Amino acid sequence: MAFWWPLLVLAFAYGLCRFLFMLIPPKVPSIDVEASDVLDDGNQAQENSFIYVPPRGTSQQSGKIVQCYEPATMKYLGYVPALTRDEVKDRVAKVRKAQKMWAKTSFKQRRTFLRILLKYIIKHQTLICEISSRDTGKTMVDASLGEIMTTCEKINWLLSEGEQWLKPEYRSSGRSMLHKRAKVEFHPLGVIGAIVSWNYPFHNIFNPMLTAVFSGNGIVIKISEHASWSGCFYFRIIQSALAAIGAPEDLVEVITGFAETGEALVSSVDKVIFVGSPGAGKMIMRNAAETLIPVTLELGGKDVFIVCDDVDVDHVAQIAVRAVLQSSGQNCAGAERFYVHREIYSSFVSKVTKIIKSVRAGPPLAGKYDMGALCMHEHSEKLEGLINDALDKGAEIVARGSFGHIGEDAVDQYFPPTVIVNVNHSMRLMQEEAFGPIMPIMKFSSDEEVVKLANDSKYGLGCAVFSGSQDRARDIASQIHCGVAAVNDFAATYMCQSLPFGGVKHSGFGRFGGVEGLRACCLVKAVVEDRWWPFVKTKIPKPIQYPVAENAFEFQESLVEALYGLNIWERLQALVNVLKMLTEQNPAAESIKKKNN
After folding, report:
1. Stated pTM of the model
2. Residues designated as active site
3. Active site annotated at which positions (predicted)?
4. Which of 193, 236, 323, 527 is the most exposed place for a label (fewest CB within 10 A)?
């Protein structure tokens, strides 16, 4: 006890000091970001106060400017330029120059940058969420969950663990290289190109930017033409934080435009991160093949939500409705296929029907609404088409939500949350990505059947499995061919930013998030060096020195058996042979030596 007592005292003192140190707030600079031109105070300039009606069809996908409007009200927000190919290359060149300086910075400086951003985000949650809401139509609660919490969690993970995963990682050197030290180094790739979707305008900018900048890269982010207004404001936050630490001002760029702008970016950078549709992802791959750069694709999803017969129906029904409303045009992580065990099918449908009927949709900043507007113009027509196809094939609508006060010009931007039953896999609704607030519910009878149904899809992004037995839920989830899985929860994997995120099949490949996503922005370099330099150096054994000895191959045979043989006695015998041959003279080498003398 006399020996342990001082150690216990020291451990307690250390823990107390760590705790007291945590109570001291870090000195983090504050930044001011100009926001007067994005605040909706009712006093907008006349030219920005009219209702905007977007052109229909492909005509809205091209031009010299990108028009911006509020999908919930159709109020005009302004426009941003659609950058040309040459303008994109010029931006990338500036970022490349800045990155060469940034690559030499310390992790301490990079963490300061992250803390400045985190401080601003926490103090300006309302502003960030309102801007996201105005540009995409989502509610303030959805913006807080999907924009603020995920980004803060990402920053916190990088602050806590980012450096340790980018430091050299030592590996075993094996038997033949015992005298060597083996390690993996992680160097910046250079300039990362990110082409991101509209559903999370804040997080989709910050997510790749945080990873790229912390790993020593520069980044150019092409934001969606459907969320350019908010993206340009969020870019100001990044610029202000970079300026606060004296970083190169061109380290991060946000560019706007249409397909041509994205294509120009792909051909100019060292890696591409793409979030979007499978069709666009294939075009990204074709363009990236021209310069043979790595690509991370996070594409479509048709995530499954499985409910076994031993669950708390009331509890799971609430989660299910949250999961489907997250598909209301704002969240690619929403569930789109619901499989419920036939023993509780009627009870589950009754519960979700009651909840859905209480859901009200409307302009998210004009009142207390559960659901906002669809972001993309004409998307409601696609959703109606999916439902009509299902109805023609025998499906039935059992519940729909209601609308609040919606302006006449914005009616097409809203779609009522819908519960539809008697569905099957012959229907487009169960095969195509809907990206809308539709809950198609299908029965299943056994765990084997539901696994087969879940895997009957060209997509493979995520799944959520609910059961009163965690082992049962885990077993089902393990058999579903997808990239992320939540056991007795929904979308919880993305809030664990230590985990990689991505899918398989038509949902893409590669991962962002976690260690895998961080290192994916690095040049991964294998390095071997002498362990005891300069005392032990690599020397070519005499039998295989040029000109090789007559017994050179025999030497190699014995060496291989000495190193890797399964029988210890045979290995020892082979080692004796190796040592014996090392002491013998090489006749060919001796002959050449005498001739040269």
Report:
1. 0.92
2. 298
3. 298
4. 527
